[in-house]
């Protein structure tokens, strides 16, 4: 084989370029597929957390509303309520994420570390301003006649 012909021979170039292009396209398609599955999984986790937040918040609103109603009915009928207590638990994590619950007089805000958020409206006759973190699971909701407010304490 003549060395001059060897440098002018371009038979192997098209095979190499074709291989590099096919490899690049395969890597690009594979990366796009993995990225879309990751995004879909993250979206599903946040949607599941929002649904769990709605359930958790609605249950808490029902407890606060029943305690509020009990105190108001007793007081409107001439009775005296010194203290009412209700023990409740919340899960430590939802979808393997920690979360916080911020309670005001009109709303309960729930937010997670992965930016999933939800809020549940309600109306209370008494002051409730608390922040609950999911690292503790057992709490006590109590009505205190001296301060005319509802208090949430970690047990």
What does this protein look like?
With 155 residues, the chain is of the alpha+beta class. The chain has one domain. The protein is 46% helix and 26% strand. It has helices spanning 3-8, 11-76, and strands spanning 83-89, 99-103, 107-112, 117-121, 130-133, 138-144, 149-154. The strands form two sheets. It has a four-stranded antiparallel beta sheet, covered by helices on one side. Strands 1-6-7 form a three-stranded antiparallel beta sheet, covered by helices on one side. The N and C termini lie far apart (89 Å). The model has no long low-confidence stretch (mean pLDDT 83).
Summarize, please:
With 155 residues, this protein is of the alpha+beta class.
Percent of sequence in beta strands = 25-35%
**Biggest sheet: strands side by side, in what order?**
4-3-2-5
Number of DSSP-assigned strands: 7
Approximate helicity band: 40-55%
List the helices and strands and how they pair.
Blueprint lengths: L2 H6 L2 H66 L6 E7 L9 E5 L3 E6 L4 E5 L8 E4 L4 E7 L4 E6 L1
Antiparallel strand pairs: 1-6, 2-3, 2-5, 3-4, 6-7
């Amino acid at each position: 084989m003549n060395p001059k012909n060897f440098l002018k021979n371009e038979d192997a170039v098209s095979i190499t370029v074709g291989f590099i292009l096919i490899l690049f396209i395969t890597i690009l398609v594979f990366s796009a597929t993995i990225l879309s599955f990751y995004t879909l999984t993250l979206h599903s986790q946040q949607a599941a957390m929002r649904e769990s937040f709605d359930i958790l918040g609605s249950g808490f609103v029902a407890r606060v509303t029943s305690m509020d109603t009990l105190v108001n009915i007793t007081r409107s009928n001439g009775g005296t309520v010194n203290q009412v207590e209700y023990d409740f638990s919340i899960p430590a994590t939802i979808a393997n994420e920690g979360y916080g619950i911020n309670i005001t007089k009109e709303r309960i805000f729930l937010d997670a570390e992965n930016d999933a958020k939800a809020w549940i409206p309600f109306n209370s006759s008494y002051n409730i301003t608390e922040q609950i973190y999911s690292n503790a699971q057992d709490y006590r909701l109590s009505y205190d006649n001296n301060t005319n407010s509802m208090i949430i304490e970690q047990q």
